[in-house]
Input
Amino acid sequence: MMGKKRAEFVKELIIKIKREHTSILEEAASFKTKLVRVGRNLDSVKEFVDVFDNRIKQLLELEENILFPYFRSDKEEMIFVMRYYHDILRKEFIRLGEALSEKNIYAISKSGVRIVDALQQHIVQEDKKVLEGAEKKIGIDSSSMLLMQKIQHNPSRLK
Output
């Protein structure tokens, strides 16, 4: 069993990751709509890559370096799958950047769709299989986690 401070740290980390996942899913869905008319939305695609690439890299590093090691023995196979998605995302962001510099509309669209699809699949699986498993391991249930998340996101709910 984890020490109290370690468990609190992991709880906070899970809340942060889930909040970031929710935001990423919303932004990825918006980005996917821009891919329909990518030729007219090159500036939006470039902006997405500039901001989102760094944001995703930071989240992947946080998951790989801090969260995954805590649960490696319990979820080894799932962690392997999550790392595989991380590799796909890194490679697709590189491809998307290259396609943007070449203004290759087809390649931009293809990589953009792959990024959105990989993000969606990865986040759903990670939330369900890794983060929920982590919550159980540190002794909190999903409903209390959701309440903690809402309170941190909107403290006025306590009033």
